[in-house]
Amino acid sequence: MHQHVKGLLLLLMLIPLSVNAQKAGSCYTATALIKTMYRVHVSPPALGAEQEMATISRALNQLDESRFIFLESDVEDLKNYAKGVLDTNENTACAFVDKASEYYLDRWLATDSMMRQLLTEPLTIDPAAEVQLEYSELEGFASSRTEKLQHLKHFTSLALIGEYCELYAEYDSASGTETTAFRDFEKELSQRYLDRLNCDEGEPYTEAEVKHKVTEALLSAIALEFDPHSEYFSPVEKERYQGSLSSETASFGILFGEDDNERINVLDIAPGGPAWKSGSIYEGDLLERITDEAGEEYDLACVDAEDLNAQLDVGEASVLVFHVRHSDGTRASIKLRKGDVDVSNNVIRGMVLSGERKIGYVALPSFYTNWDGFGGLGCANDLAREILNLKNEGIEGLILDLRYNGGGSMGEALQLAGIFINQGTLLIRTTKEGKPRLEKDPNRGTAYDAPLIVMVNGFSASASEIVAAVLQDYNRALIVGSRTYGKSTSQQFFPLLASNGKRFTDGSSGYVKVTQGTMHRITGVSHQGTGIEPDIALPAAYKGLFDREEDLYRALKVEPVNRKTYAYPLPPLPVAELSEKSNARTSSNAAFNDLTQLNKKLLKINDRETLPLNTDVVGSYYRDWSSVFEEISENLSQSESLYKVEQHANSEQLSQLDEFERETVVELKEETASDIYIQEAFNIMLDWIKFVKDQE
């Protein structure tokens, strides 16, 4: 809910300005997409009348999430085109695209005119009006032009009040919206909105552009009927999705894309690049603004992701500050210096936590590999090299941090797990055809056999969960943190099938990233939807605020499999003893105790279906939200640390050659030293080492 409310502050970004001038694919692509999905999807569902109506509903919702475009009568008419939209023989996709495009173009022109008129006059704000924040299915569309105008007026008013109250936290809400300060702000914001509307010099959509947009929405909705991770990609989108960030020219090491609301977000991060080395930017982060060293703000009003990537590549600025919002709602401002994407050194940065004992610490943001186009041998090889550096420092244990790691290459995940496993089956993979296949440790022997802790949280997904599951099943590591995301499926790109459904095309009509496999633990059980339960649970921040796999539309259900495996688990770890000690510490730790109560406050604030056009309520909402988030952020760090964070010798030598690198390392050291979760993992490791020594 909160992310949607924040989106209101970028209201006019939800009214599209233009689409990429790429060739719009034929609406008959829908038939090829469905045939392809049935051919390769691991568990294709039966598609009937219910799924056809759901497809139309989700396509229209994607086209008009905030109900600015279509009228209720348009939607009622478009429902008639649901029958046959998923039929591969007599597909009605073309008829739907034609009719929806006709309505969209006509209504968009009317909406554009209304918005321009609204923004040229002071708003008359009705404090008693309630604005609905989210809509389900096909509800909430205006019944007339007059009702739509009122709807736009209310949304624009809420966006204005919301941004004003958020920017001016000390605002005296009792003074209302008729003050000089508020009206001056309204003029400024309205001008910004008008500037955005005029980005394309007022040129309306062409018919071809609208058809392309509607077709893309429909294809996206069709893929979603199979499962939440299957997606249609046009050739251009696929190239961008898998595109590499150059290692030959200086860059910030970030590739930007756009989310469903056309907001710019972080699509990819180049291992070894400046963003990766900062350790503070993650895939999926929303970009809020960019400033230079002097604080001057870049104008992003008329820039899409493709333009921004080009500007950053050729721009003269060598140092910029990227202001982002993470997936957990927290914000960060990260200063980056343009540099080479270096995959040969320091991609993974290990640290030594020097306290009562020396413990190695490595954070891995994603599972990268050479098929991403970044070169190098992948994260497993890089981690093995970094472990050697840490072992040379005399570490007695290792903490591998997979929090916020959303996955990546499954091959790298298996290679990485094999670093700590001598030999045996790592997981069981199932596909649409054939019996379950065993995935074995690709390399016999281990690179590290001392105590190992793997840190996870609710944002650890896919490949991260595979590593956690393998090491847990083999009793090779203690899994510490909170329940993981719960994704145990794998996806692969396929070009669409030809119209006869007998052969794959060259991809000119598009691709589908389709779920073609599921993974099971060596026990035969899948963690799909359930996630990995940690051996030692720590109180979770932001619990219940963000979707998990089990919450997603059409999330797959994966049944256990019966397959003989060849696994050689180590003796059980002292989980009960170490968990008891950890629980005693966290239960008496004020920071951890406060997290639970603060999380309840956040859930209560977030649980709103409407907001009134009332500065008291909206101002209070933003102040309360910001206050609780600030408290949580403060609780997640402690000024006193149990250890000193140091670089290993090789890393120290590299940073001495680069002043900017030294600054980055200083910040990373401070964050690592103050993180209460890393501190507790350090304590658990001390207990574990002591337990082992006592048993000798």
Strand order of the largest sheet: 17-14-13-10-9-8-19
Q: Which oligomeric state applies? A: single chain
Q: What share of residues are in beta strands?
A: 5-15%
Radius of gyration: 26 Å
What's the average pLDDT? 84
Alpha carbon gap, first and last residue: 54 Å
Shape: globular
Q: How can the largest sheet be summarized?
A: 7 strands, mixed
Taking pLDDT < 50 over at least 5 consecutive residues as the criterion, the unreliable ranges are 1-25, 243-248, 371-376
Count of beta strands:
19
How many DSSP helices? 20
Give the proportion of residues in helices: 25-40%
Specify the structural class.
alpha+beta
Outline the fold blueprint.
Blueprint: H1 2-8, H2 29-40, H3 49-63, H4 72-78, H5 93-119, E1 130-132, H6 145-167, H7 180-197, H8 207-224, E2 231-233, H9 235-242, E3 254-258, E4 264-269, H10 274-278, E5 286-292, H11 305-314, E6 319-325, E7 331-337, E8 350-354, E9 358-363, H12 379-391, E10 397-401, H13 410-418, E11 425-430, E12 437-440, E13 452-456, H14 463-473, E14 478-481, E15 489-495, E16 511-520, E17 536-537, H15 575-587, H16 590-606, E18 610-612, H17 615-635, E19 644-647, H18 649-656, H19 659-674, H20 676-695
Parallel strand pairs: 9-10, 10-13, 13-14, 14-17
Antiparallel strand pairs: 1-18, 2-16, 3-4, 5-6, 6-7, 8-9, 8-19, 11-12, 11-16, 15-16
Helix pairs in contact: 2-8, 3-8, 5-6, 5-8, 6-17, 12-13, 13-14, 15-20, 16-17
Walkthrough of the structure:
A 7-stranded mixed β-sheet has the order 17-14-13-10-9-8-19, sandwiched between helices. Strands 2, 11, 12, 15 and 16 form a 5-stranded antiparallel β-sheet that branches. It has a 3-stranded antiparallel β-sheet with strand order 5-6-7. Strand 11 and strand 12 (437-440) form a beta hairpin. It contains 20 helices and 19 strands. It is of the alpha+beta class. The radius of gyration is 26 Å and the shape is globular. Helix content is 40%, strand content 14%. The protein has helices spanning 2-8, 29-40, 49-63, 72-78, 93-119, 145-167, 180-197, 207-224, 235-242, 274-278, 305-314, 379-391, 410-418, 463-473, 575-587, 590-606, 615-635, 649-656, 659-674, 676-695, and strands at residues 130-132, 231-233, 254-258, 264-269, 286-292, 319-325, 331-337, 350-354, 358-363, 397-401, 425-430, 437-440, 452-456, 478-481, 489-495, 511-520, 536-537, 610-612, 644-647. Residues 1-25, 243-248 and 371-376 have low confidence and may be disordered.
